[in-house]
Every structure is written in structure tokens, then in C-alpha cells.
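Appendix B, Record 12. Input sequence as logged:
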Amino acid sequence: MVAAYLAIALLVPLVPLLTAWRYAFAPGGGPLLLVSFALFLGVPMKVAYTYLFASDLSAPWFQRPDSALEYALVYILLFMVLVSVGYALGMRREERFDARPVLRAQAIGPQATLVLLVVSVAMFAIVLVLLQSRKHGFSDLTDLLTFEKIADLNRSKLDMISRVEGFGKSYAFIFAFLGVIWFSFIVIVCSSLSDNRTRSHVAAVLILLALVLFESLIRGKRLSLINILLFFVIACYIVRGHISTKMWAGLAITFPVMFGVFTAMSVFRHFGADSGGIGLQQAADIAFMHVFRSTYFTDINNLATIMWRMEDHELLMGESFTRLVTSFIPREFWPDKPAISVGIFVRTEIYGVGRALGGINTPLPTEAYLNFGWGGVFVGVVYGFALRRFEVWCLSVRNVERYGSAWLYIFVVLPVTWVMMQSSFALAMTGAIVATVMALAIGIPAAMSARRREQLRGAAAMGPAQIGRGGDGITTPAE
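Logged structural output:
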């Protein structure tokens, strides 16, 4: 029976992977590649761990009969088949990615790089001051430079997520401004991969990388480390079309370092400032437990248990998808605002854990079931169709030239795809709308600047005589 479970589980990520490999518009596989990766970690890897290696299955999302897993595997396989169907329905003839030269031309120069770097550092400092003024875990900014305070902040995040009482402010509105740092990091990374790379690009990338890692440490955002590697690889494929041997070697060195940081943050969550005496073996066990015993990624165990327990609850009938409407009202102004994520409902109503600030991860296939039952598989058609059309729109030559829309693909479409396979729709789309504003704020000026440079180069190539005759609409006064 376990072999049958594993065989079906392996088919789930294979469906979007094959679709991406054969039909993706974007270089490197497009958003379906991220979908496949999240499914691989959440379905076959979780099934293998649950039935072959797990020694402790006391978490509530393991409390269901084996038959529930069978239904969950069939459901999610159907969902992904329909995602691929929707993706195919969104295809048009003669669609081809030709925007790489245009994207390279829109790479920002040293001055714009410096502006983004200064804005990012200033925004980071402002957010820290705002949090400090609200006594968010530290009384002095210098505390954040100590091992004990970083460990305590990671531990306090676990307490905040798991606590039964004190449901209240998460300061998500303040933390949203840190998206500027992520956006600047991605833009400058892409520019550094172009033909116009300068030392200022490299220096800015290193400084912003340090800020992103520091933010991840003090906020306990362990999956940000995976995001950095994923989006760097994707940016290489989009801007350059390949990854050099030198870059692969660098990634091979970076991955164990990132996993070491992830392990340290996992230990911090358990032991706080007392983490110093933990051995390597125990630390590794904690890290693997946090991946495979958690609801990270598109977790099949969570889906199976929800499907089994939803027999005693009414379907939400689309209610969780409409929470996007109230998501932009800060809790500063509406203290009792209902939770945006449906994960709170899962934690309190399905699992009966009680009120808490954090919820259970509820990716799109699971959320679709919570709303429509088995009919939720048809959400996959809409999702696949939307992925394809957004992918093509953002990377078409026309839109890249006009709006700098490639930044929307890198900073909106890909992150939303990744988040939606791990978290709720409203939460993912809230971040997407904010990111869209930031992406267009730099994408449109970058596109306009690139067009002006191209016009000037064209005018210089034509020469004074042709310009005087009004070539390309450029005229000079008559002699």
C-alpha cells in the first residue's frame, strides 16, 4: 500500500513538471516549475517521511485514517491535471519568448542602483524604528546585533503563532514596507546579470543580500532563504538564458550555507537564547522535523486531514477568497479585523487548537476544497489559465518595451505562484497587489529610459544628413 501511495504521490509534481518542460513560455520552465517544486516537497517527500521514517506523528494534521490520504492523493492529482489543462487552454499559436534583448537594455545603471540602495537602507531603518517604538520584541536597536536577542525573537515568533490568547496585531502593515528591499534586490540582481554590470551592481547586491538575510533572521522567515536561491536561478534563465558552470559552483557552495542558517533558525525557535549547547545531530533532526512534520509547502497530510474533518463542517463557498477585499485595512485602524488567511479557520475550527495569531498553511488546492469540496478541482483550470496568460503578458516584447513588465513577472507572478502553493489566496494576492505597484513604479520609467537611449543611438547612427531630412520623425531647422 505504501508503494502505491508513493507512486501516486510522485505523479502529482510530475504533471506540472512535464507541462512546464514541454509548453512553458518563459525560460527555465515558468511558474509551473515552482508549482512542481512545492508539490514535490509537499506530496511525495511528506508521504515518504510519514510512512517510512517518522517516529512521532502526534501533530493534529496526522490524526486521520489512511483512507483519507488516498482521497487526498486522488484530489490533488486531479487538481494538477486540471491546472495543466487550464495552462494549455491559455496557450496561443506562435507564442515565443523574444524579450531578452529588451530586458537587458532596461538594466538600471549605477545612479539608479545607488538610489534603490539608499531607499532600501532607509526603509529598513524606518521599519526598525517603528517596531522599536511599539516594543516589538526589543527595547533598543543595538539588541538586534546580539545572538541572544536574535534567538529570542525567533522563539517569540513561535510563541506568537502558537499562543491561545492575545490574538492581535501582527504589524503586517509595517512589515509590508520591507518589500522595497526585496524588490530592489531582485532588480539589481537582474541588472548585474546583464551586459552592463558594474562594480556598483555587485556591491549593492551584497549589501541588500545582507539586509534580506538579517531581516529573515530577526523575523524568523526561514523560507526566505529558499526564495533567494530560487529567484536567482530564475533571473539567470530570463536575463542570460543559461546558468554558467561558475554560477552552479557558487550555488553548490551557497546551498549548504543557507541550510545551515535554516537549521540555526529552527533551533532558535525551539530553545531561544539557550540554543548554544545544542549538538549538530540534534540541530539537524530539528531542521528536518520542521520541514517534513510541518505543513510547509503543499502538504498532503494537512489536505488529507482537512478533507476527513470537513465532513463535520459546512463548505465556505468562496468566502475565503473574498477576504482580499478587507486585507488592505491596517489593524492599527481596525483592531478586531477578521483574519485574512483561512489558515486561522483551519487551526481553530478544523483542528480545534484555539485562537492564535498564526494559522495552518492552506495552499490553493486545500483552500479550494475548503470552499467547494471536490468541486474545488475546477479551480485548477482557472489557476492554470491565469498562470499562462500572465506569464505571456508579462514577458511579451510589446509589454516589456512599454511597461517594463518583465519586472512584474519576476516580482509578482513568480512569488505569488510560490506563496499560493503554500498559503492562502487572500494573503498571496495582498502581497501581489502591493508588489505590482512597486514593480510598475520602476518598470515603466526603466522602459521609457531604454526607449530614449535606443532613439538616441538610432539618431547618432543615422548621421546629421539623414536627421536633417526628417528620418524617423526627427527634424532639424532648415539651413
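Residues 425-468 form the longest helix (44 residues).
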